[in-house]
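Objective 1b. Sequence-to-structure analysis of Signal recognition particle 14 kDa protein.
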Amino acid sequence: MVLLENDSFLTELTRLFQKCRTSGSVVITLKKYDGRTKPVPRKGHSESFEPADNKCLIRASDGKKKISTVVSTKEVIKFQMAYSNLLRAHMDGLKKKDKKSKSKKTKATQ
């Protein structure tokens, strides 16, 4: 997994969306990140770790390529605006659900 800066993450995410436009999917996950690189110790060992600030870990994958970034609280609003614009631009290829008409349901129940 490649840890990228916020701007380069958005450009790579754009490339992932364009590559998977006709077939395939992109999986995006968001997670609270406290800066730990090692697992939490067991109950017997007490090690105090206080994160400096809250961060968000964002990962994206198309099944073959994985990218990730860490967004700090100072950069959240700027990143969220750019991220939402990117999602709006690339969510146009979604398939619409087939809606069943109500008239068929009412006739079936009578």
